Amino acid sequence: MKLKIMEVKLIAFVLLQAVTVRSQVNPEMCRYPLGMTGGQIQDEDISASSHWSESTAARFGRLDFDNGDGDGAWCPDIMSEPDGLKEYLQVDLRSLHFITLVGTQGRHADGMGNEFAQRYRIKYSRDGSSWVGWHDRKGRQIIEGNSNAYDVVLKDLEPPIIARFVRFMPVTDHSMIVCMRVELYGCEWLDGLMSYSIPDGHQMIYRGLDVFFNDSVYDGASAERSELTKGLGQLTDGTWGLDDFLHSHSYNFWPGYDYVGWNNRSFPRGYVEMIFEFDHVRNFSSMKVHCNNMFSRGVRMFRQVTCYFRSGSEWEADPVTFRPAVDRVSQSARFITVPLGDRTASTIKCRFHFSDLWMLFSEVAFQSGSAVYNTSMAPRDDPTHKVDDSNTRILIGCLVAIIAILLAIIVIILWRQVWQKMLEKASRRMLDDELTARLAIQTRAFSFHHSSLSSESGSTSNSTYERIFPLCADYQEPSRLIRKLPEFSQSTERLGKLSKGNKAFAAGGSDGAPHYAEADIISLQESSDNSIYSITAVNMNFFAGTDSSMREFPRQKLTFKEKLGEGQFGEVHLCEAEGMQDFLGEDLSIEGNNESPLLVAVKTLREDANKNARNDFLKEIRIMSRLRDPNIVRLLAVCVDTDPLCMITEYMENGDLNQFLSHPMYFLCLSYTTLIGMAVQIASGMKYLSSLNFVHRDLATRNCLVGKKYTIKIADFGMSRNLYRGGYYRIQGRAVLPIRWMSWESILLGKFTMASDVWAFGVTLWEILTLCKEQPYSQLSDEQVIENTGEFFREQGKQVYLPKPPCCPDRIYKDLMLSCWRRNAKQRPSFQEIHAQLLESLA
Ligand code: AMP
């Protein structure tokens, strides 16, 4: 397959970027396990103050997701130590790392042990000699750890740590033995910055409001609270200030929190001097400074910066000076890139000149090439010998990363092309036929009268039903995707442990929702506890049992006309049903079908279906047989006395809504009113389902059918039948779910309720008003969709919503669509309200 020229250009561009640009660290991406679990951290790099016995030495302190026996752990000899608070487990990462998350676990030894650290502290060091106690942004040092010996507890480090050595220090009252297994998450700190020295920030009084620009997380020394030396802090914490410096990313902090800022009046020379010390000599290509520029309040980015370089003891004579373009228009905060001309240094001193009364910085980052090894500076036994080692590792890392990016891009491009083809609506049937022809042909007793084929040949159909249902791009396997994210991974990985502990999930959040890192998707999927779904016992009874009214239709009276489509159970055929009206004893023309013999859709279970699929098929029949609403597709009869099992439903001449709307023919002729009319019908059908407390779980345009005169009926109860299995339908052992239509709580907590159907309705309405031109969140990969789900959970304003469709009035988007995607399920509207609101909008 040839890659298009554009795509090759894209690869080249990305590669070039990867080689030449190394951007500042992004704490949201920088969350990789650093090697306690995976073994990349060597035993000799894990040490401890003491251990209880040889079998609980430091090297056993590795967090363990997979093994499950939970036997090995580090357990200090706290009892014999007069001051157990000094005990620690130390990890040497061999180079500076940006650490954003830590995980801890206890020791259960398969029920024999029950040792864990309820609370602990962290200390860290960049050089191995001076140690700093970590504290959160509010000054708290103690981290709440484990509450049992099984579960992994992850804690975000806010602020993150930049260190090579990290110590975990259990806090205990000596009443119990403590054991720990740990993991660190983050990424390598490529800046190599060991410390910066700056004058501490000042206080501004803005319209009577105290605004503090001090470096509140600085971890070095502070001389009389004015000169900060030998530490790192807010300028390297990966958090960039907002345009309006009065506001910060977190609401709980004081105005000005995200910035370090200085007042011109305190600097008679007109500049602020900063000294940056690095781990070794490097070639610096540039420095990026994130500055505020709210000039209406006397704040502007710097006018000029002059940087001096030092590799040995003396500053070099020729500094680099840079003057950024003055911006008198935009008040947005921005990164200013200062070219450093590939200068060599281990220390850089920069003087930033004021251009207004205030200068505010929130981040400083450096881009440097590989280190320059200077023999005069590095005697044989000097620790700087490790410089070479670490740079070789960085270089190898970069090359591996580039190759991985290249491979990933090629795979993505190929994948997109393959899937685009598969999803090509027009060629869907062709694809089906081709697949059918390719797969083994097996004659089987299938007593439809095939009007075109078999009636001529006199033989029966030889449809095979052996094929594996092709996975549609709308359905994904969330547990697989979630496992890729370190913050979510433990929830899926600890299934084994949870099931041992016999738990569903541990509630944690203040709103009663479990912390996503504590929610267990797989255990919920496999939980038989139906209480997690909002279906009452009464309604369970309603759907349970056999339905005597669903009668067996003589299958010889079905005559095959054409194939309509294919679902996960098998094919759907259009058939003529001779005598169906008499059989049902009803005049079906009332339902809009005047054909005689009646045209029906026949859904057939493929022959090689296993027992589970067969049971599910029968359950779907049972569910559908009880549903009777003008906007729910009606089950007319069944053929279940002999194989293959069939369900006979009313025929919807215009197929599914997705394929209907995306057909170019309808592009111009469908009015906004018609589209909203369709949404009204779906809302009405859902209103009926919700009156039965029935959760559909897979509402989307692809699962709505279109009949004559734009009649819409909800179909496909394939996912809802799982209510009775307490687990997801699995195709070849995989749980595949429509993640782009699912609420955050369905993805992260496995919770499906009426409110999650409302969420899916919002997405369905969006599909309708965009004429199904693209998949929801088409610009996001599946992984990014899951990440976005995490943002909905965190609700820090970073979640991405589907955009307003071009023809959609503001009030439908803001008052209806967005309300369906509210984080709090209780605040989402009911289908009754949605139905009324849509009707009202048509009035
Ligand atoms: P399903 O197995 O229900 O997902 O159906 C697969 C495809 O068959 C759908 O996407 C429709 O295109 C078609 N189909 C299913 N049921 C009907 C029906 N009652 N009337 C017309 N087409 C149908």
TrEMBL record:
Catalytic activity: L-tyrosyl-[protein] + ATP = O-phospho-L-tyrosyl-[protein] + ADP + H(+)
Domain Protein kinase residues, every copy: 558-838
GO MF annotation list: ATP binding; collagen binding; protein tyrosine kinase collagen receptor activity
Domain F5/8 type C: 30-187
Cellular localisation: Cell membrane
Protein's membrane topology: Single-pass type I membrane protein
Listed Pfam families: DDR1-2_DS-like, F5_F8_type_C, PK_Tyr_Ser-Thr
Membrane-spanning ranges: 394-415, 664-683
Keywords: ATP-binding, Cell membrane, Disulfide bond, Glycoprotein, Kinase, Membrane, Nucleotide-binding, Phosphoprotein, Receptor, Signal, Transferase, Transmembrane, Transmembrane helix, Tyrosine-protein kinase
One of the protein's GO biological processes: positive regulation of neuron projection development
Stored SMART domains: FA58C (SM00231), TyrKc (SM00219)
Family annotation (PANTHER family): RECEPTOR PROTEIN-TYROSINE KINASE, TYROSINE-PROTEIN KINASE RECEPTOR
Family: Belongs to the protein kinase superfamily. Tyr protein kinase family. Insulin receptor subfamily.
Protein name (Swiss-Prot/TrEMBL): receptor protein-tyrosine kinase
Record organism: Haplochromis burtoni
